[in-house]
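Let's practice the habit of predicting before peeking. Look at the sequence and jot down your guess about where helices and strands might fall. Then scroll down.
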Amino acid sequence: MISTNDMRAGQSIVHNGRICAIAEYQRVKPGKGPTFVKVKLKDLVTGQVLDHTWRGEQKVELADLRTRKHQYLYRQGDTYHFMDMETYDQMSLPADRLAGVAEYLKDGMEVDITFFKNAPLKIAAPAFVELAVAETDPGVRGDTVTGSTKPAKLESGAVIQVPLFIEVGQVLKVDTRTGTYVSRA
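Done guessing? Here is the structure:
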């Protein structure tokens, strides 16, 4: 337990049974009356942003989160299988727990899995991944308009917008946080 006066942005707490990261923290000392703390919390499971206000010196539970490296092994139906890089223990997660990450996974890729009380909470893929183009329309000679894009399906199944000169088989660097093309690899 920590005091609300000791909270800082970036810490994780348990609030109403939800594990939340403190996105913004503001301590307010009005001219009259007690100090209070205003925070923006981001639910680490759902991504929902919550606003909350506490009186100064209230106690909140600090969430003990552990992040460990795992290797993505394979997909079997709607289940994804991972291996802990330290203990070599294997675990499987349903597709709904990998929202926004599953479409960028490639066999053998390392990901960070965050645990709360030994239960997987969230999965973070590397910021940038290199994936080959599986399908896209062919580039037409003369299509050189700056900023023009076309859809391309990558080897992992993700569909992103790419410049017109990209062809099937090329390896691209993709930003997994925004799902955008960065460059050719």
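How did you do? The chain has three domains: 2-62, 65-124, 128-184.
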